[in-house]
Design goal:
By secondary structure, this protein is α+β, with helices and mostly antiparallel strands. Helices cover 34% and strands 18% of the residues. The chain is built from 20 helices and 25 strands. An eight-stranded antiparallel beta sheet has the order 3-4-5-6-13-10-9-8. It is elongated. One 2-acetamido-2-deoxy-beta-D-glucopyranose binds next to strand 5 and strand 6. It is found in: Endoplasmic reticulum membrane.
Length: 811
């Protein structure tokens, strides 16, 4: 074990005080780079590995499987996670990207129960994958044909992956300019390759023999390797054609040999290359099924993983460590709910991906501000390559970066591993461009693009999205800087070894200087982002001058602090993140959106906090002024005394030009509260809380509805943000309740206030419903029905729905 003990670490800290920040940063970075180097970072695969930040010469691999006993079973070959596969269940029982974990896949169509255990050496450089398969139904005759593919990418003159001879097991030796030398071995532990007992041989042509492992090495261009499934199917198709030709006809084909038809072989006489297929077709007629290991060992590591027992014990200790870490952070009384929470968090963490490639951006199409038709982004051009380390909303439907979702993912991840959350956030901040823009969806490279409907691949630098990353960063800073006093090098921690990378997760929390240093570095970039948002989403206030003069409020309005979402259409406001939430029925250039203003309020508050940490007093004052102006504008412009709620506004031209409030009770009216922008002593506070608690409007037995039951648009049209319950906003509401009513979290007994009851009730209802649905279907969902609480939208949505873990674990 590479170990620096705690005293050394304290010495490092001392050094940093003495002024060698760089050194300390290096130690921190090196450790995090190593522990997070390998992971199942191809989020869109059931299982696929690519290393993080290795872009020139990565080693990539993927796992596929099908039942080759069925004619055309190959058409149900699994590779990319797809809702249409109708898996009974899939996902991580337990996972931590630093440690590894266990994924289970129940594939009824292919009659197989697969467990995939992924573990790493303590230095993070070596890893092993144990694949275990068992039949689901013993009476159903089946095989499981497992296909592993792997490739050493990069210039073939300096990077290679070759099969070695004379080894007891299957061994590949690799060389990567970035990863150094390594070797891969694949060893069977249990089970047997398929062979019909009534036949002497399973061979039907040269290489077409399912009773043996098949291996094919070939050249595949790096950018095509993600099409491993298509390539495999094409080769099999050609192989079958070849066999048919040889045999003249398939009329008399002996069905007992079918699995051999689907065995990969070198029919084109291809020379070996850096891409490899390894196929094993296992007999599933035995309850024990099969098991094999794949091991990757780097020559740069002294912690080689060799034996079966070593892998077994790595798996056991990985699961142990995860459980211990989880229980240290989250307190959940019920064992069943705890397992639900562990699984849900693990699926959020198991969805974390590393993406690298070009992004398609349309910088020329202009949004005509008077027209509110859908704008086709037809001038997209490839830019980049860029890199992004991020979690994803759902591996099946949304395996890529989403700006609006990510801040919420981070709120969950930082509870478990602050350093990891920080790495993700920093990667997003890297994407902020010269103008200060970040794309709403980050879709890097062909593999990521292949999962996106064409109309959504192109991003426009005119379009914004709720800046949740700053919300998360602000939360992070609060944790770190509020925690300075908690750090001491006392005896109780002396046993810890900092060099044991699996113990990482809260170094930043224990060492605020690191994050301060980072904040200093990115401050200019965040400022650009902030200014970009303010500049591009600015509302038009002049149109209201006569109206507000007449109302007598013109002079008290802060004219710079009015905002709207650019790119809204008559039916949708995609930039707001709340797509079909009702807005003014007739779009108008003068419209001002209360949620856009609220989000700028949050950005401003975060900038203020960063300026404070960096001792930028003048900037801090400036942000404080803007924040206070925004809060005042929320009251003067958007508060409708008549309805007692926050509303969008527009100009009503029919009735002699007046301010018209567009009021639809729901998430938009709650945002100033949810984002803690209402002054604590404001009389509006009670009104908003009453609305939240109103069971005839928003408070359902399953959580807070996105739109009031009494609203004319409730449940209508696409019914996306028109009633269904979403975890992200429910989470913010809970958080805000605790902020406004500190008695909720106080340890005193005076907890029976209405706000405390509301908070309690809301979290209980959310937990009860999400858990109930999970127990019934095995999955978390994108949102939940306002009528009966059932899961709606995307299945296996462990993006922000995973915030239920914080709600469970903190209550
Ligand atoms: C960690 O990885 C990043 C991204 O590749 C790289 O820029 C940085 O130099 C690495 N840091 C250390 C100390 O190796
Ligand atoms: C799948 O296999 C694992 C062990 O490998 C077992 O714990 C689990 O119960 C099995 N699930 C089903 C549905 O058969």
């Amino acid at each position: 074990m590479v170990g620096i003990n705690i005293l050394t670490f304290c010495w490092l800290l001392f050094q940093s005080v003495a002024g060698s920040d760089d050194f300390e940063n290096d130690v921190y970075e090196k450790s995090i780079n190593q522990t997070l180097l390998w992971g199942p970072y191809r989020s869109n695969c059931y299982f696929g590995i690519t290393p993080r930040y290795i872009d020139e010469s990565p080693f990539v691999m993927g796992l596929m499987w099908f039942d080759s006993h069925l004619t055309n079973g190959i058409s149900s070959m699994r590779h990319f996670v797809d809702e249409n596969d109708r898996m009974k269940k899939y996902g991580w029982n337990a996972f931590d990207p630093r440690i590894g974990g266990e994924e289970v896949i129940i594939d009824e169509e292919n009659n197989v129960n697969l467990s995939l255990s992924f573990v790493k050496s303590h230095d993070g450089l070596n890893w092993a994958l144990r694949v275990k398969g068992k039949p689901l139904d013993l009476n159903k005759k089946s095989t499981t044909s497992i296909v592993l593919y792997m490739q050493q990418q990069g210039d073939a003159n300096t990077n290679e992956l070759l099969k070695t001879r004379d080894e007891e097991h299957f061994v590949l030796k690799g060389k990567s300019t970035q990863l150094g030398k390594y070797d891969i071995s694949i060893k069977d532990n249990e089970g047997r390759y398929y062979k019909d007992p009534t036949l002497k041989s399973m061979k039907i042509a040269e290489g077409a023999d399912c009773s043996q492992m098949s291996h094919l090495s070939l050249n595949v261009p790096d950018h095509e390797s993600w099409k491993a499934r298509d390539i495999f199917q094409t080769i099999i198709g050609d192989s079958i054609k070849d066999i048919v030709q040889e045999q003249g006809s398939m009329d008399n084909f002996d069905n007992r040999l079918t699995p051999s038809l689907y065995q990969i072989r070198n029919i084109y006489n291809l020379p070996p290359g850096n891409f490899h297929y390894v196929q094993k077709t296992f007999d599933l007629s035995d309850t024990e099924g099969f098991e094999f290991d794949m091991i990757f060992n780097s020559a740069q590591s002294k912690q080689r993983i060799e034996s079966y027992n070593e892998i077994s014990s790595l798996i056991t200790s990985a699961l142990n460590e995860i459980n211990i870490k989880f229980d240290k952070i989250f307190t959940i009384d019920s064992e069943e709910k705890r397992n639900f929470a562990l699984e849900t968090l693990s699926n959020l963490l198991g969805g974390i991906g590393y993406f690298h490639g070009t992004q398609i951006i349309d910088r020329t199409t202009v949004f005509d501000e008077d027209q509110f038709q859908e704008i086709k982004l037809i001038n997209g051009k490839e830019e980049g390559p860029y890199s992004l380390f991020t979690s994803v909303p759902s591996r099946s439907k949304f395996p890529r970066g989403f700006y609006w979702d990510e801040g919420f993912h981070l709120l969950q991840i930082m509870e478990y591993d602050l350093d990891l959350a920080f790495e993700i956030m920093a990667s997003w901040v890297d994407l902020i461009d010269e103008d200060g823009w970040v794309a709403r969806e980050v879709i890097l490279g062909d593999e990521a693009r292949s999962r996106v409907p064409a109309e959504f691949t192109v991003q426009s630098p005119k379009i914004a999205n709720p800046p949740t990353l700053l919300l998360a960063f602000s939360e992070m800073l609060q944790r770190v800087t509020g925690n300075v006093d908690n750090f001491h090098c006392d005896e109780s921690t002396e046993d810890d070894t900092i060099g044991d990378f699996t113990q990482d997760g809260n170094r930043l929390e224990n060492n605020p200087d690191l994050i301060k240093e980072y904040a200093r570095k990115v401050y200019p970039k965040l400022l650009k982002h902030y200014n970009w948002f303010r500049r591009t989403q600015k509302g038009v206030i002049d149109e209201y001058s006569d109206i507000f003069e007449e109302e007598g409020i013109w002079d008290s309005i802060h004219k710079d602090e009015v905002f709207k979402w650019v790119g809204r259409t008559a039916t949708h406001c995609l930039p707001s993140g709340l797509d079909d939430y009702p807005r003014a029925p007739t779009p108008d250039i003068a419209e001002l959106h209360v949620d856009a203003l609220s989000w700028v309020g949050i950005m401003t508050r975060s900038m203020k906090q960063i300026a404070n940490i960096l001792n930028q007093e003048n900037d801090e004052k400036l942000y404080a002024q803007i924040e206070s102006n925004i809060i005042e504008n929320l009251e003067t412009l958007h508060w409708n005394p008549k309805s007692g709620s926050y509303c969008d506004i527009t100009i009503d031209e029919e009735y002699g030009d007046s301010r018209e409030f567009i009021c639809h009770d729901g998430y938009i009216s709650l945002l100033p509260f949810a984002l803690k922008l209402i002054p604590k002593d404001s009389p509006n506070l009670d009104k908003v809380v009453s609305l939240i608690a109103d069971e005839d409007k928003l408070f359902s037995p399953f959580g807070i509805l996105s739109l009031s039951k009494q609203d004319e648009y409730f449940g209508r049209g696409e019914n996306y943000w028109r009633g269904p319950i979403w975890m992200n906003i429910n989470y913010l509401v809970l958080d805000a309740l605790k902020y406004y009513y500190p008695e909720i979290t106080s340890t005193q007994k005076s907890k029976r206030t209405p706000a405390a009851k509301l908070c309690n009730e809301l979290s209980n209802r959310l937990i009860k419903n999400v858990y109930r649905v999970w127990k019934h279907s095995g999955y978390c969902y994108e949102n939940y029905s306002p009528i009966d609480g059932h899961g709606m939208g995307t299945e296996h949505f462990t993006g922000w729905t995973a915030l239920i873990v914080n709600i469970l674990g903190r209550s």
